[in-house]
Amino acid sequence: MSEASNADSVATAKTRRALEAFLDDQRTAIIRKVAGVADEAARRPMVPSGTSLAGIVKHLAFVERYWFQEVFAGDDPEYPWTEADPDADWRIEPWETVEGLVRFYESEIARSQEITTAAKSLKQRDSRKRTTLRWILLHMIEETARHAGHADILREQIDGATGI
């Protein structure tokens, strides 16, 4: 390997690690936002759209599933939504708990990390050949960070906690 291509490989590896670290930081922020919040408070819609802290966690678990398992890996996972009920991933069912939703989110993150680790490069295309792992990681950073901001506001409304 030439010195120039070796430098490119090192830069690409550093970029990949940075993208994965930024995404992991945002994932951790989401989990911190619901830590210590009672189920009743976490499932309570706090804005007119019906968004709740627990709903954010559930939604992001399915976002992880969609982008990494379905789009990138080409799997055929299940989802709760239908054409008649497109927002089911935001709704908290009576039997769901914050603890259970966090475990679900963590399991989807773990699967996403397995898929990402197995990918050969950031340039690797998804199963449909439409986009790259790099784009998916960037999109997931944006999506998760956006909802972490929403969670900041909801948590502050619930108990005044900020900076968590």
Please render the helix and strand layout as text.
Layout: H1 3-34, H2 39-43, H3 53-72, H4 98-118, H5 133-159
Written account of the structure:
- The protein has helices at residues 3-34, 39-43, 53-72, 98-118, 133-159.
- With 164 residues, it is mainly α.
- The mean pLDDT is 92.
- The chain contains five helices and no strands.
- It starts with a helix and ends in a 5-residue tail after the last helix.
- The protein is 64% helix and 0% strand.
Low-confidence runs (pLDDT<50, min 5 residues)? Answer: none
Give the termini separation: 46 Å
Q: Please compute the radius of gyration using only Cα atoms.
A: 17 Å
| Main sheet: strands, sense, barrel | none
From the helix content, strand content and strand pairing, which structural class follows?
mainly alpha
Separate helix tally:
5
Average pLDDT rating: 92
Measured as a percent range, the helix fraction is 55-70%
**Sequence of secondary-structure elements:** HHHHH
